[in-house]
Amino acid sequence: MRHHRLLVPGAAAACLLLAIPASAADATPGAPGIGDSYYPSYGNGGYDVSHYGLRLKYQPKTDRLEGTATIVAEARQDLSRFNLDFALDVSEVLVGGKKAAFTATGDHELEITPAAPLTSGRSFTVVVRYSGTPSKVVASGFTSWLRTPDGGIAANEPESAWWWFPSNDHPLDKATFDVSVAVPDGTQAISNGTLQSTSSQLGWTRYNWRSSKPQATYLTTLAVGKFDITTDTTANGLPVINAYSKDLGDNAGAARASVERSAEIVDWESSVFGPYPFDALGGYVPNVPTGYALETQTRPFYSPKGFAKGANTSLIVHELAHQWFGDSVSLKDWRDIWINEGFASYAQWLWSEKEGEGTAQELADYTYASYPADDPFWKVEPGDPGPENQFHDAVYDRGALALQALRNHIGDKDFFAILKGWTAEHRYGNASVEDFVTYAEKESGKPLAALFDTWLFTPSKPAAAQARAAAVSPAEAPVRPKSWQRIQDTHSAHGR
């Protein structure tokens, strides 16, 4: 049945105005950076992405990657052109189904000029066809694509997307993802979220993964190789998928003994931080020579070296805590790294407390006493460490120390209520250090600016009087907690 609507002149004029596209005269280019204080060229301005659909084909023998990325976005200004962050070779770009002009600028910028300007507030779709050999592509002096004996891995921070898909590469622009990857039969492709389906044809197997919750680009991962895969479900029915390269050697047993405890650890962390924010969990350990781990969303990446000294549940606790602090609640600016790393490190202190290997208070006391006043450790401000110190020990240890100082100042009831409330209020969003200070003051009813200034923003060791006020100044030299060294070992797993 057809319906006809009668429009009065005023309403008709308004509809015509809404239909008028942006004019070339009014439209302006989107900024080639999103405005990050540490990485000005990362991300882009003028639009916001809601979804990435990636259809890929990867040949492990040659490291050849072919892909088509479909990006759904909304213009935030009248756009004459816009940028994507990308470093592989592009053969074609379509915007709204029409061919668009494009050029590579700098070492990771793809500048796109659509056939007609894009109107602010309107959604649009970009299709990018591309190919390349990721391990041979150097951008900003390095590659984030890791080769393995049987494949390749995309996992790094603060950037890894450039080497395998075009994006608005900054945590401020999170999106949902569909990642579809074809690999030779006998090889697996691991990504984030839930495995929707697999299919085989003419010697190739295609894996289709979906991330249904907002996800930052650097937290989106791809692992291609030959894996032993374990599957399970949590008590709440969430799918657990873990994967281990078949050639991990002496580290294989310790890796499994650690990662296989992911469901147990998430259940415990849910009791401390609030409901788990995603619909899948797990982890993967590929055969890479690196030493770091990364909180890739729902499926953290672990280097085999993280288990060289035996099983390491503390490392698993850290990366899974990031699912709340860093993944669900993401930083606004890379200077806000403390809201990721300080909280994940404090989760390790809480786990140590639970396991009877040293309380958070004992760890705080030992941390404060372990570094003399002239140690460079105290020169780094966890609240704004600078890009060269983003993964400095101080961001982890001093960052956790700040949370113990807060806990002592406001009491356990308010402190643990704040942890749950913070992750609930900013779920799937972004926040800054300043946002946390404001939230903690509101929920505790106490002024806290001076406390955070002392522990996060002062480039020197807090004086004894300040430490006593925060109850982290032991009267005598504290005994080293049993968990101390294992927690310290995880710091090396975070230097990129």
TrEMBL record:
<keyword id="KW-0378">Hydrolase</keyword>
<keyword id="KW-0479">Metal-binding</keyword>
<dbReference type="InterPro" id="IPR014782">
    <property type="entry name" value="Peptidase_M1_dom"/>
</dbReference>
<dbReference type="InterPro" id="IPR045357">
    <property type="entry name" value="Aminopeptidase_N-like_N"/>
</dbReference>
<dbReference type="InterPro" id="IPR001930">
    <property type="entry name" value="Peptidase_M1"/>
</dbReference>
<feature type="domain" description="Aminopeptidase N-like N-terminal">
    <location>
        <begin position="50"/>
        <end position="219"/>
    </location>
</feature>
<dbReference type="InterPro" id="IPR042097">
    <property type="entry name" value="Aminopeptidase_N-like_N_sf"/>
</dbReference>
<dbReference type="Pfam" id="PF01433">
    <property type="entry name" value="Peptidase_M1"/>
</dbReference>
<dbReference type="InterPro" id="IPR027268">
    <property type="entry name" value="Peptidase_M4/M1_CTD_sf"/>
</dbReference>
<feature type="region of interest" description="Disordered">
    <location>
        <begin position="468"/>
        <end position="496"/>
    </location>
</feature>
<keyword id="KW-0732">Signal</keyword>
<dbReference type="Pfam" id="PF17900">
    <property type="entry name" value="Peptidase_M1_N"/>
</dbReference>
<dbReference type="GO" id="GO:0008237">
    <property type="term" value="F:metallopeptidase activity"/>
</dbReference>
<feature type="signal peptide">
    <location>
        <begin position="1"/>
        <end position="24"/>
    </location>
</feature>
<feature type="compositionally biased region" description="Low complexity">
    <location>
        <begin position="468"/>
        <end position="481"/>
    </location>
</feature>
<keyword id="KW-0482">Metalloprotease</keyword>
<feature type="domain" description="Peptidase M1 membrane alanine aminopeptidase">
    <location>
        <begin position="311"/>
        <end position="455"/>
    </location>
</feature>
<keyword id="KW-0862">Zinc</keyword>
<dbReference type="GO" id="GO:0006508">
    <property type="term" value="P:proteolysis"/>
</dbReference>
<dbReference type="InterPro" id="IPR050344">
    <property type="entry name" value="Peptidase_M1_aminopeptidases"/>
</dbReference>
<dbReference type="GO" id="GO:0016285">
    <property type="term" value="F:alanyl aminopeptidase activity"/>
</dbReference>
<dbReference type="GO" id="GO:0008270">
    <property type="term" value="F:zinc ion binding"/>
</dbReference>
<keyword id="KW-0645">Protease</keyword>
<protein>
    <recommendedName>
        <fullName>Aminopeptidase N</fullName>
        <ecNumber>3.4.11.2</ecNumber>
    </recommendedName>
</protein>
<comment type="similarity">
    <text>Belongs to the peptidase M1 family.</text>
</comment>
